[in-house]
Design brief:
CATH architecture of the largest domain: 5 Propeller
Shape: elongated
Number of helices: 3
CATH superfamily of the largest domain: Glycosyl hydrolase domain, family 43
Oligomer: single chain
Largest sheet: 6 strands, antiparallel
Number of domains: 6
Strand content: over 45%
Structural class: mainly beta
Distance between the termini: 82 Å
């Protein structure tokens, strides 16, 4: 198991977990728009009736996700919307940024809804059944978690290979708080085992940071074709790679524009104006690529390009659908194709919707969900003889405000023709013309939102009752765009949760703004970038209570950045949080009690109070601090009832306590049996033991019995041992003992380990020396045998043939004088160590002639 498998736990959300917003939902779509385990086995499905033979209508799929988001209590909105069919008939819907949990009765999304960066929804038959993500139900996390806190994965396309699901994912790093402030770090391949979707690996691929791969996958002609997206300035470009066969772990080749090369840096652009994700499908002998029209900012158009081969060159665009959501001020992005559910003769297309204002996304949970449309394909082609002719004499003149004035000769026709204007940004590398504006009846047009110094091409077509005619000759011009003026009307309004809403007046032809802040109270001198935003408002979160902040805004136009706006100040205010709902308390087998409660959103920590009801405590004690909406109460007493209450804390202070909850701590005697019990050292009257345990820091009981004394039962040592080592004292030297160990907690000990035997012995003194000193005396000295020991001196009269006798008084030191000896007799002496109970073996005797 490698470190890349840190996402091994995934859960199927079946209940509402704690609700926590990790990031804003518009982080992904704005990057797209403006840059233009516990593993629970999924139930194997029965054959799916909604296969390609019959398909599902777009209307039915849109309603399916609306119903699931409103009623499941698990998933309530997401973007990306790729799909892959599994061998057992189930269909997986792959999502990037995802909201979890239920919606409120009024259809709004709670501000504390959990937000993760990738997930999967499982469709079985014609119903959405499960939501799959990482973490736990209480603390959900992304299915493919990032390797660092400031990074995240967005999903690409996926496919089945053998018994595995291969999913391309792109890793990003946050560079600021704004929705556009991200940078691509690379592409990885995440693999899941089937049928249970158990995660196995996340393997970084050597593909660099220029292209996000996995925009689409297509199997055709013995290869898997891999499409990617390169963001360059305001334009996105499609790239194509391939692998032989099906396995994405094989060698990749990259289309260079004329052939194939193994180096990713030789990959060529094949089409401009694609989204971060798009769809590619083979229909007959043609390949059709469907994307959101990303050559224009804030376009609601879905377009198709087609080619004779998977690498192009592509013809088009064909205009398939104009999303009505843009009429309500919403944003449309990330189109994709779903051939497994498409009805015959149709393309089934999904697209995503969001809003530049977070408040809208939260007020209406239905905004941030996929929509589906169907279009006939191939498209009918009008008879060229019946369409009106091309306009003539098109001219394009640059204007200093960053626009181009177009004029042409009107077409003489009987059906009151209208005109369509098409534009191509040559400098940005756009490969195809894009339709701009609405049809006009006048033979003139003003093209706005141009970029300073960019060369543009324009052409015009005539729209009659029988279709659109051929394009006019091309007119060229180079845009002249001055920097915009600084934004005016800047105002800042403090909220009640450490947030400040900053608003400013719109500027003509400006759609992008940078917001800066300075903490005046803390003495910050230089303003710091908050983020890059579209629209004319932004909300700054996570500010400190009672601190004054200064804000300025810079407009970003086609001619560069404006000067900063006049500053505006606001003092942040944070209302102390409300009391959490009553927590749940679940006793654990090890005597702990686990508490869970509904989280109150980001920037909130919690204090957990408890009292021992059984012990007669009447007041809650000092709290424990937790940053998440759960707590493990430890060091509890067996069979005692405890009461808990929780408060929430933010920079505004501590809120009120939750309603209390009670639970009784109960220990279950350990089932684990210590292994490997061994004697590591034997000393005088003591033995040192060691063993192995699955809970090395836990408590254990040591048992002994004196075999020499005939003991048949083990006796428990009085003091429990924490850890896996123990020293047993007050043993009889020379006695054989048997020892055993058991894991223990407050409920008592578990089963005994295999026993081990040892015999403690007193040491033998060494270095005995005896010297006759005259007058019938002999002086003895020896080396100390060990700390805390005394000594017994033994002697015998060899000349008289007497037996050994022991001096009646123990000696505390290491020297002794024997007196009243018979002069002229030879004596032998020896010394033995004693602990006051037992006497050890004596030293070798030493003889001396007494004078």
């Amino acid at each position: 198991m490698t470190s890349r498998r840190g996402f091994l736990v995934s859960v199927r959300t079946t209940t509402t977990g704690s609700r926590r917003r990790e990031d804003r939902p518009h982080t992904r779509w704005l990057l797209v728009l403006y840059a233009a385990a516990l593993v629970v086995t999924l139930t194997a499905g029965v054959p799916d009736p909604a296969r390609a033979e019959g398909g599902m209508s777009a209307e039915r799929l849109t309603a399916l996700f609306d119903r699931y988001g409103d009623t499941s209590g698990r998933w309530n909105g997401a973007d990306r919307t790729a799909s892959v069919r599994l061998p057992d008939g189930r269909l997986l819907w792959l999502f990037s940024d995802t909201f979890l949990g239920p919606v409120d009765p009024d259809g709004s999304r709670p501000d504390t809804a959990s937000f993760i960066n990738n997930s999967v929804v499982v469709q079985q038959g014609d119903e959405l059944r499960e939501t799959v993500h990482g973490g736990t139900a209480e603390e959900p996390a992304s299915l493919v978690p990032p390797p660092a806190a400031d990074q995240f994965y967005w999903v690409g396309d996926a496919q089945v290979v053998g018994q595995s699901l291969q999913m391309l994912v792109n890793r990003y790093r946050r560079t600021g708080a704004g929705p556009l402030d991200h940078v691509l770090l690379g592409t990885s391949l995440a693999t899941f085992a089937l049928p249970g979707l158990a995660p196995t690996t996340v393997r970084p691929l050597p593909l660099g940071q220029r292209i996000s791969w996995g925009s689409a996958l297509l199997r055709d002609g013995g290869h898997t074709w891999i499409y990617g997206t390169e963001a360059s300035g305001e334009t996105k470009f499609a790239h194509v790679a391939r692998v032989a066969g099906d396995d994405l772990t094989g060698p990749w080749e990259f289309w260079t524009g004329s052939g194939w090369a193994p180096e990713v840096d030789r990959s060529a652009r094949v089409l401009s104006g694609v989204g971060t994700s798009y769809g590619v499908q083979r229909v007959g002998d043609r390949y059709v690529l469907v994307t959101h029209e990303n050559n224009l900012v804030f376009s609601g158009g879905l377009v198709a390009y087609s080619a004779a081969g998977p690498t192009g060159p592509f013809d088009g665009p064909d205009y398939l659908h104009s999303a009505a959501e843009t009429d309500a001020g919403h944003l449309v992005y990330d189109a994709d194709l779903h051939p497994d559910l498409a009805r015959p003769g149709k393309l089934l297309i999904s697209y995503n919707v969001n809003n530049v204002d977070d408040a809208v996304t939260y007020a209406d949970a239905g905004v941030y969900r996929p929509r589906f449309v169907e279009v006939d394909w191939p498209r009918p082609r009008p008879d060229r003889a019946d369409v009106p002719p091309a306009p003539a004499a098109l001219t394009a003149d640059a204007r200093g405000a960053g626009n181009a004035e177009l004029r042409w000769h009107p077409v003489r026709a009987d059906d009151e023709p209208r005109y369509l204007v098409h534009r191509r940004d040559v400098t940005a590398g756009q490969t195809h013309f894009v339709r701009i504006g609405e049809p006009t009846a006048e033979a003139r047009f003003s093209a706005d939102f141009l970029v300073n110094g960019h060369e543009y091409e324009f052409r015009v077509t005539t729209l009659g009752r029988r279709g659109e005619g051929p394009p006019s000759p091309v007119a060229r011009m180079t845009a002249t765009v001055p920097p915009p003026p600084p934004p005016g009307g800047l105002r800042a309004t403090a909220g009640r949760t450490g947030d400040v809403a900053v608003r400013w007046d719109p500027l003509p032809f400006v759609q992008l703004f940078r917001l800066y802040q300075r903490d005046v109270t803390s003495g910050q001198r230089a303003p710091a970038l908050v983020g890059t935003f579209t629209g004319t408002s932004a909300t700054v979160d996570s500010l400190w209570h009672a601190r004054t902040y200064e804000f300025t805004v810079v407009a970003v136009g086609g001619g560069g950045d404006s000067q900063p706006s006049a500053p505006v100040r606001a003092t942040a205010f944070v209302t102390p949080p409300a009391a959490p709902a009553r927590p749940t308390a679940s006793p654990q087998p090890d005597g702990d009690i686990r508490l869970n409660w509904a989280g109150l959103g980001p920037g909130v920590s919690y204090r957990v109070y408890r009292r021992d009801v059984t012990a007669g405590e009447t007041r809650l004690g000092s709290p424990s601090l937790d940053t998440r909406a759960n707590h493990l109460a430890r060091h509890l007493r067996h069979d005692h009832e405890y009461e808990f209450a929780v408060s929430a804390v933010n920079s505004g202070g501590e809120g009120p306590l939750s309603p209390p909850v009670r639970a009784r701590a109960r220990f279950t005697a350990p089932e684990v049996v210590p292994a490997g019990l061994r004697v590591t050292k034997i000393g005088p009257g003591q033995v040192e033991l060691a063993w192995r345990s699955t809970n090395p820091g836990g408590w254990h009981r040591v048992y002994r019995r004196d075999l020499t004394a005939g003991e048949r039962d083990f006796t428990e040592e009085k003091v429990a041992v924490q850890g896996t080592e123990a020293t047993i004292h007050q043993l009889r030297n020379g006695h054989e003992y048997e020892f055993a160990v058991a894991a223990a907690n407050q409920a008592g000990p578990g089963r005994l380990s295999r026993p081990v035997r040892a015999t403690p012995r007193l040491p033998t003194p060494g270095g005995l020396a005896v010297t006759a000193s005259g007058n019938g005396e002999a002086r003895l000295s020896w080396r100390q045998a060990g700390p805390g020991l005394a000594y017994r001196v033994q002697l015998r009269d060899v000349t008289s043939g007497t037996s050994w006798r022991t001096d009646p008084y123990p000696v505390a030191g290491t020297d002794f004088t024997a007196v009243l000896l018979t002069r002229g007799h030879r004596y032998e002496f020896r010394v033995a160590a004693t602990d006051g109970v037992d006497t050890g073996p004596p030293s070798a005797p030493v003889a001396v002639l007494v004078e």
